[in-house]
Structure formats: C-alpha cells, structure tokens
Design a protein that fits this description.
Blueprint: E1 11-16, H1 25-34, E2 38-43, H2 53-60, E3 64-65, H3 71-76, H4 79-84, E4 88-94, H5 96-104, H6 110-117, E5 121-126, H7 130-134, H8 136-147, E6 151-152, E7 156-159, E8 165-169, H9 173-184, E9 201-206, E10 211-212, E11 218-219, H10 226-237, E12 241-246, E13 258-261, H11 265-275, E14 280-283, E15 290-292, E16 312-314, H12 318-324, E17 331-338, H13 342-352, E18 357-362, E19 374-375, E20 377-381, E21 384-387, E22 391-392, H14 393-408
Parallel strand pairs: 1-2, 1-4, 2-3, 4-5, 5-6, 9-12, 9-14, 12-13, 14-17, 17-18
Antiparallel strand pairs: 7-8, 10-11, 15-16, 18-20, 19-22, 20-21
Helix pairs in contact: 1-2, 1-9, 5-8, 9-14, 10-14
The protein binds ligand PMT.
Length: about 400
C-alpha cells in the first residue's frame, strides 16, 4: 500500500465475455499494465470467437484460462485460487448473458464459477445492444447485482456496432482503468483519478471574459467558471501541477492551484501562452469571440440622437493558438458550447481548432448548464463520440481528468 491507500501492484482478474467489445479487452490489458497492475485473464467460450488466448496471454504475460474442467489448469491453480489470488475481479465486456448468470448465481463455466466463488470486489463494464440493456430482465439483473455489491462502470451512450444508437456501449478503456484504480484503492468514487497525473502540468482556462465598451460597461456571457474550476480541482486532486487562468468569477481558487486572474480575451491569451509548456491544456473558458474595436474613455453619454454604434473586432482564438504552438501540450481539449447541431458543430471545432478532444455541451436556455451545477457532455474525437450521462460538474471534471490520465499513460 502507498500512503494514499493505493495498492502498489494491484492483481486484476479480468474476465472477458463474448460481445463485440471483447476486442477492446486487449487494449485494456495493456492500459492496466501501464498502471502497474498484473492481469490474469479468463476468456469465456464466446469471447474466444473475438480474441485468441494467445493474444491475451502475450499482452498479459500470463497463462490465459478458459476451461473449468481442465486437469492441467486445476492441478496448477484451481478455480477457487484463481478467484482468491486477485485484488479485484473485472468483467469487461460484461454481456447481458453473463450478467444474468451472475444475478441468478449460475456456475456452469469457468467465468461464472469464479464469479460465484470470489470473495473480492467485482467491477463490471456492461456492453450490449440498447434494447437488451433497456429490457426489463436486464434491468432486474442490474438491480440485483447492484444490491449484491457489484460495482459498475458504464455503460455509455453512443453509436453501436449494430448500427443503433443509445445506452449500452462499453465505457472507454480510460474510464474502466480509472474505475479499476478507484476500486482497488477502496475509493467509493469509481472515477477517482488518485495520483494518476503526478508530475504533469495541467493548464486550464475558466470563466467568462469581460470586453470593455467604456470605463464602466462591458460585453460578457453567463459562464460562472464552475466547470473549469471543478476541472482544476480534480486535476490537482489527481496529483498534477495546475495553472488556472480565469476570467472574472466569484469562486475562490482551488487550494494549491496557481491562479491567474484576467479580464479580457487578450489578457487570457497572453497569460495562457506564458503558462506553456504544459502536458494538458483544457480550454473551458467562455472566451468572447469579439472585443470592442475602440474602447471609449470615461462613460459614453446617452444622447438623444441615436444609441452609440459599437464596432467589433475578432479576438484571438486561444485554443487554436495553443494547438498550433511549437510548445503544443500532448493533450489539447477544447469545449464547445452550442445551442443547436451540438455534435456537428463540435466536430467542426475539433478539426478547425486542431485539438484532440472536444467536450460538447448544450447551453440552450433551459439547460441551466452555464451557471448551473450540472452538465451533460459528449466527448467528441476524430474517431467517434461518447456521451456521458447528466451529472454534477465535479463528476464531469473527475471523469475528464481520469480520461486525461488514461490518454497520457
Ligand atoms: O462556467 P460554467 O457556468 O460552469 O459553464 C461551463 C461552460 C458552459 C462555459 C463550459 O462547459 C463550456 O462550454 N466552455 C466553452 C465555452 C465556449 O466559449 O465555447 P465555444 O464553443 O464558443 O468555443 C470553443 C472552444 O474555443 C472553447 O474551448 C473555448 O474556450 C475556445 N475559445 C473560444 C473563443 C476564443 N476566442 N478563444 C478560445 O480559446
């Protein structure tokens, strides 16, 4: 155990059941090993239709198990020992069928027998078609498993291999790894990133900018800074060195974070570029796209003739500049605040601004995302979109930080 309660080399017993997401288990093994885990793998018969024992054993560096009635396996290590010599049993992907077996206590193959025999925490990453996930039988099984103390990561919402869309996709590997690390540390928060960003510099922008019209008036927006501050806080909790460049907000800066207070987009741009290099840049600020071309000295007087005409000039785009800079962080994440065509506009921003990920959120009136406590975000990459369920801004921040840790590992 380390000082923060983390197991130093967690032993993970990974059970892979037979769904299309089984091919991702190979990457999962690699990512778990990157985190210092030792991984022993059980493949169900159906899983072997998707991946081979040879591939799983090459990546895990250990023998792979699949038969319950195998004389050699039972002589070497019985199924009871398999379940006991682990700090956590992880089922990824967990098919509807295996979950049904678990819920009703079946033990008719190696995977289900080990799951019934284990005295360790069990974490499952469901993966199935949206209709199968929504089916009353599956939902009954989910409730039973939850009341039995089984931990869940996902499923996520998104495009499915079968061409449908909805809830049922296996969570991203980075999220599963974060959940594993949370579970082996005894954390109840399955997205807790622990010290996963130790030694990394995370640069975050947050809040609105104020673009002066004259000495007393300015152009602003409804951003409160809550989402960006939550990200800075979560990155700090994950062990990162954090710089937070913030527009005007009423939130106290998170402890231990370098806080740089700015007013305008130009000031935010200068402070951000000066804070580079960084390993990760997260551009959460609602930067004004335009500033007033000629700021008036004093207070513009109200005249009877006509209201003043305000001419606007485009502000520098900080996210694009960081993405294209010679000291580009390894991971550049932008946000997209949209009121229509959310994913389509987010995809355009992803390529136009040259970032690795866009976190898309709907800020239409009625969503209460700007200024509110909760957010519903969609992780948009060139390779696809993952939708996260509505949650508190702190949870979104923790998951995003876990995702960053996974990307950097
Ligand atoms: O602050 P809260 O009340 O908690 O609300 C959170 C939030 C809604 C502000 C946040 O989740 C969010 O969506 N932030 C991005 C807001 C925004 O300006 O989005 P945009 O789609 O206009 O810009 C796209 C990206 O480019 C953003 O990463 C933005 O920071 C960046 N940008 C925009 C303009 C500019 N001149 N420079 C930039 O860097």
């Amino acid at each position: 155990m380390t000082d923060d309660g983390t197991l130093q080399n967690p032993r993970i017993l990974l059970i892979v059941s037979g769904g299309i997401a089984a091919y991702k288990a190979l990457d999962l093994i690699r990512r778990l090993k990157d985190q210092g885990c030792s991984v022993r793998v059980i493949l169900t018969q159906a899983a072997m239709q998707f991946i081979t024992p040879l591939a799983a054993s090459s990546l895990s560096g250990q023998k792979v198990y699949s038969e319950i009635f195998s004389l050699t396996d039972e002589a070497e290590i019985g199924h009871i020992r398999l379940s006991r010599e682990a700090d956590l049993v992880l089922v990824a992907p967990a098919t509807a069928d295996l979950m049904a077996k678990m819920a009703s206590g079946h033990a008719d193959d190696l995977a289900s027998t080990v799951l019934l025999a284990t005295d360790k925490r069990v974490l499952i990453a469901p993966s199935m078609n949206v209709r199968m996930w929504e089916h009353a039988a599956t939902q009954r099984n989910v409730a039973t498993l939850k009341s039995d103390g089984v931990l869940f990561v996902g499923p996520a919402e998104g495009d499915m291999a079968c061409g449908e869309y909805g809830l049922g996709r296996m969570s991203e590997i980075t999220e599963i790894v974060a959940a594993v690390m949370g579970a082996v540390s005894g954390s109840t928060n399955m997205s807790a990133p622990l010290q996963s960003l130790k030694g990394k510099h995370v640069l975050v922008t947050a809040g609105p900018t104020h673009e002066p019209i004259d000495d007393v008036r300015y152009i602003a927006n409804r951003s409160s800074g809550k989402q960006g501050y939550a990200i800075a806080h979560a990155a700090k909790a994950a062990g990162a060195r954090v710089t937070l460049v913030s527009g005007p907000t009423s939130i106290p800066p998170p402890e231990g974070v370098k806080h740089i207070s700015v007013l305008t987009a130009q000031e935010m741009r200068d402070a951000t570029m000066e804070a580079l290099p960084a390993d990760v840049f997260i551009s959460c600020a609602a930067v004004a796209d335009w500033r007033v071309t000629k700021v008036s000295a004093g207070k513009i007087k109200k005249s009877k003739a006509r209201p003043p005409q305000i001419d606007l000039t485009e502000n520098p785009d900080i996210l694009t500049e960081v993405s294209r800079s010679s000291s580009r962080p390894r991971l550049v994440i932008g946000f997209a605040a949209e009121t229509d065509a959310l994913i389509q506009n987010a995809r355009t921003k992803l390529s136009k601004k040259g970032c690795d990920i866009i976190v898309a959120n709907d800020v239409s009136s009625g969503t209460d995302v700007m200024g509110g406590e909760e957010n519903t975000v969609h992780i948009v990459r060139a390779s696809g979109v993952e939708s996260w369920p509505k949650s508190s801004k702190s949870d979104v921040a923790r998951k995003l930080v876990a995702l960053c840790a996974g990307e950097l590992s």
